[in-house]
Amino acid sequence: MRNAGLASTLLLLAACAESPPPDPSRVVAGSAAQGELYARQHCVICHQIGDRGGKLGPVIGEAVKKAVERSATFETIVAELERVRPEHREEKRAKIDPILAELDPERRLRLWLATYLDDPRFENPANRMAVLPMSPEERANVLAWLLSLR
Fold first, then answer.
1. So what's the pLDDT on residue 8?
2. Residues in Cβ contact with 58 at an 8 Å cutoff, skipping those fewer than 6 apart
3. Which of 4, 77, 125, 141 could lock 35 by a disulfide, CB 3.0 to 4.6 Å apart?
4. CA-CA distance, 12 to 129, in Å (whole number)?
5. How far is residue 135's CA from residue 117's CA, in Å, rounded to a whole number?
6. Which domain holds residue 95?
7. What are the pLDDT digits (tens) for 22-79?
8. Is-contact 59 48, C-beta < 8 A?
């Protein structure tokens, strides 16, 4: 059993390697039902979903509210990041700039969430969320499910 935990931890650490930013034109619609299934199998380890789940991360509904707020106030967040951690801002420029350029609030939220699922530390280097290895289809499904929770 201990080896299984170690293997899971190593898999999560390997998934934390830097990946390219999501292409704004390719943030596609997914299946919310499939996204919920994925989340109930994987995200529930740290997040509460319904009456099940961990306490390491916020309840999923609260996390979605926070994502909506952060995408809407992204300029302010990035300005603070530039002031406090300019090296991180520069390192994540390719992921941050497309979100800043997106003026439509709905498309901005979709892009912010897709980027967050890919790299939870892209705009907050202190974020503790682990990167879960997801295929593009799984990511689109989880994104569709998260958006359905608003």
1. 42
2. 47, 66
3. 141
4. 10
5. 11
6. 27-148
7. 655 555 578 999 999 999 999 999 999 999 999 999 999 999 999 999 999 999 999 9
8. yes
Q: Which residues contact 142 (CB under 8 A, 6 or more apart)?
A: 30, 35, 38, 39, 43, 117, 134
Residue 4 in any domain: the answer is no
Reading the block at residue 115, the tokens are 């980027």
Task: Please give the Cα distance from 135 to 142 (Å, whole number).
Answer: 11
Mean pLDDT of 81-100: 97
HSE at residue 140, side-chain half, CA atoms within 13 A, is 12
Domain count, the chain: 1
Beta bridge partners of 86: none
In a domain, 14, yes or no: no
CB 147 within 8 A of CB 112: no
Please report whether residue 75 resides in a domain: yes
CATH number at 57 reads 1.10.760
**For residue 53, what is the enclosing H or E element?**
strand 52-53
